[in-house]
Design a protein that fits this description.
Elements: H1 10-30, E1 41-43, E2 47-50, E3 56-74, E4 79-98, E5 112-120, E6 131-140, E7 146-152, E8 155-157, E9 161-169, E10 173-180, E11 185-187, E12 189-190, E13 196-202, E14 212-218, E15 223-227, E16 231-233, E17 239-243, H2 246-250, H3 252-260, H4 269-292, E18 315-318, E19 322-328, E20 331-338, E21 341-344, E22 350-352, E23 357-364, E24 370-377, E25 380-387, E26 397-398, E27 403-406, E28 418-424, E29 427-429, H5 431-434, H6 437-457
Parallel strand pairs: 2-6, 8-16, 17-19
Antiparallel strand pairs: 1-3, 3-4, 3-5, 5-6, 7-9, 9-13, 10-11, 10-14, 12-13, 14-15, 18-21, 19-20, 21-28, 22-27, 23-24, 23-26, 24-25, 25-28, 28-29
Helix pairs in contact: 3-4
């Protein structure tokens, strides 16, 4: 009788199945996240300037979790331990601060290396996990940058502007800027030649006090600062108390709220007003500040502007920094600051340019209506709002006597007029200063020119 000799022995078959199952299990086990083979990542530059005072920030990350960190400093002869930690609770990302021992003095002439070792919680390598070592060259530098004031405006008025020129030097200079007491940072632009800087600064009309200081930092973390000695001139601005009426609330207020508020249908008339006067105003101001905060030049050697006269025979109908308090039934319900000068002449009047500039902003901007922004250099911008029409486009170059736009009543305007503003690095300032030829000459042009002569004389 014929027999099928190709039949597989059941024991062998079972053995093969078990072997495959075990192999699959081992493979699955070894390829599980617990056995990942990727070492931690250490984020720090290969070369660091260190003043031995500021802690060195080191970022460490791992797919499964960081288990241990060791940091030491090698001077070529000795290994100085700085940090040695084991983490009971692993973290996939952490940042450590490496501090230099206070009782140790280093020789600046030696070359130092920072050794960083990190291990993870992986069960790979017989449960020892993955490790990584990184060596960083350390350059010791505890010498602060030098700051020297060259020239500055004599005074700054609340709501106004001023200029400063100075030098800052350090072999490893990193940042140079102007810092104010109210948190604003003004960019310092390189001026005339390397090592010299100039900046316009601004004192907001709604800030009672103003202080500004020059700040220079180097790559090692050393910081120098120098107060700018201005004469501070206080100024009182108008406070207006405005009673809200039903006609006022149901007119343009309702129109603007219907265009911009998502829950318009559930709003009361007062809710609509508060939305327009507070929420929408704040958002529009943020947009305005965003496009007027930048200084576009990498270096300047001079700067001067002609006085601004945007509206021929225009009369002022609302002042800059008018603090408006709104009342309903004798109760104050809202407030706002009017950060521009309102000028009016006739309907759809031509708005004329007084200087050379470039259009950087042209769009509907809520309460500002059709809003045009022009950059004039050195962080100075002109803002033209409530326009009815403009033939310009973003990127267009403009020159004196060009027509920028026509006046109108777009946005939160109740009659045809121009809202004219001057902004210095994102801060609204008194347009009246920039409409005064003597103020421009005394506080900006002459200061920059005299500083330039000092700098060039020192070449």
């Amino acid at each position: 009788m014929y027999r099928n000799r190709s039949r597989i022995n059941p024991k062998i078959f079972i053995f093969l199945i078990l072997t495959l199952a075990i192999a699959y299990g081992v493979f699955h086990f070894l390829t599980s996240p617990k056995f990942e083979q990727n070492p931690p990542k250490i984020e720090i530059a290969d070369e660091i300037y260190w003043n031995l005072i500021s802690p060195l920030k080191v970022k460490i990350s791992d797919d499964t979790g960081v288990k241990s960190i060791k940091v030491s400093l090698n001077d070529g002869e000795n290994l100085i331990p700085l940090k040695d930690e084991e983490y009971g609770i692993s973290q996939k990302e952490l940042e450590i601060a490496v501090e230099f021992p206070k009782n140790l003095i280093l020789n600046k002439d030696k070359k130092y290396k920072l050794h960083i070792e990190a291990g993870d919680i992986s069960a790979w390598n017989f449960t020892k996990g993955n490790k990584i070592d990184k060596v960083v060259n350390i350059i010791i530098d505890n010498k602060k940058p030098l700051i020297n004031l060259v020239a500055n405006s004599y005074k700054i008025t609340k709501g106004g502007s001023a200029v400063v020129v100075f030098s800052a030097s350090d072999e490893m200079l990193d940042e140079v800027f102007i810092r104010t007491n109210y948190g604003k940072i003004f960019k310092a632009t390189p001026f005339v030649k390397e090592g010299y800087y100039a900046s316009l600064v601004a004192w907001p009309a709604n800030e009672d006090e103003f202080r500004a200081e020059i700040v220079a930092t180097d790559k090692a973390g050393n910081v120098s600062s120098s107060q700018i000695r201005y004469f501070y001139s206080d100024k009182k601005y108008k406070v207006s108390q405005i009673k809200l009426s039903e006609n006022f609330l149901s007119g343009k207020v309702s129109d603007l709220a219907s265009q911009h508020a998502q829950n318009f249908n559930s709003m009361s008339d007062l809710d609509k007003f508060k939305f327009v006067n507070e929420t929408l105003r704040e958002q529009n101001a943020k947009d305005l500040h965003a496009f007027t905060s930048r200084v576009h030049e990498d270096m300047i050697s001079e700067f001067s502007l002609h006085p601004f006269y945007p509206l021929a025979k225009g009369a002022a109908v609302a002042s800059f920094a008018d603090h408006r308090l709104f009342f309903l039934n004798s109760e104050q319900v809202s407030e706002s600051w009017h950060m521009g000068l309102d000028l009016a002449s006739v309907a759809n009047a031509d708005i004329k340019e007084s200087n050379y500039g470039v259009v950087v902003f042209l769009q509907d901007n809520g309460i500002y209506g059709l809003n045009l922004g022009v950059y004039y250099g050195f962080g100075v911008y002109g803002v033209y709002a409530h326009c009815s029409n403009s033939a310009l486009s973003v990127g267009d170059q403009v020159k004196p006597n060009d027509i920028l736009a026509q006046t109108g009543a777009t946005g939160f305007a109740f009659g045809d007029h121009l809202h004219f503003g001057i902004v210095v690095q994102g801060v609204e300032v008194r347009p009246e200063e920039w409409m005064d030829p003597k103020w421009i000459k005394d506080n900006v042009s002459d200061v920059l020119e005299s500083a330039k002569k000092v700098i060039e004389k020192g070449k």
